[in-house]
Amino acid sequence: MRSVAPSVFIVAAFVAATPASAEGLSVSTSLGFESRYVFRGVQYAETSVQPAATLTIDGFHVGAWFNLPVGDDDNVVPANGEELDLVFGYSFPLSDIVTVDVGLTYYVFPEAMSGFGDFYEEDGDGLGINTLEPYVSLAFDIPLAPTIVLYRDVMYDTFTLQGTATRSFPLSGKTSFDIAGMIGYVVDDSIGTDYLYGVASAGFAYKFAETSKITAGARFGGSDLSGGRLIDDSIAGTTKSSGFWWGIGLSTSL
């Protein structure tokens, strides 16, 4: 769902030119490979590369995340799985155990638009399917590190409430076994529907440097959408509502 190469270079150049030693500043980058791109219980592409970068300064953060399909895609959406997400936000501690994050995500789908600002319009007059989604999240510094996030898509007229939890089991000084779970609920006011989605994941992480690690794992998830949207047999054209996929990743921070 998403040509994004110029934006990739802009973000990379900005990160590279930023002095990581500046007070209150941090930079994180990641590069992932997923056998499916699944977003809120719906599959938008098969095998995909997912690079990302985030810059944080005194609580303010700006980031870019990409989904770049490789090989054949599913064609389940007009944008063919290419996507660029730009995130702008601010996080602050509410108490010793609660952190608040408020922000805005701009979802860009280059192959389905004629310009960067082509937003979806419910009356059909829009040129593209890009959209804006404000959010507010609460992160709790307690066992399982739960988070709760409320999203409001202002173009597609949807609300999403999502919760996550994680647990890490150290296996050695550098290796751990990690599990995570996510469940969400989407209400689409524009067409009067709602659905549940979820995903569970398990895998291994190897910390090869103080702030860098490699991860590999399996995921199982989907949604209760009628008819399903995870590809079962793309050649036969059949679909199902849930399935397995896997991913590997490299992440680092400064």
Overall structural class, as computed from helix and strand content, comes to mainly beta
The value of Rg in angstroms is 18 Å
User: What is the tally of beta strands?
Assistant: 16
Envelope shape: globular
Largest beta sheet: what is the strand line-up?
1-4-5-6-7-8-9-10-11-12-13-16
Mean pLDDT: 85
Instruction: Give the helix level as a range of percent.
Output: under 10%
Q: Provide the low-confidence segments as ranges.
A: 1-21
Annotation field: number of helices: 1
CATH architect. name:
Beta Barrel
Described by strand count, sense and barrel closure, the largest sheet is: 12 strands, antiparallel, barrel
Q: So, the CATH homologous superfamily?
A: monomeric porin ompg
Ends distance: 30 Å
Number of domains: 1
What pattern of helices and strands is seen along the backbone? HEEEEEEEEEEEEEEEE
CATH class category label: Mainly Beta
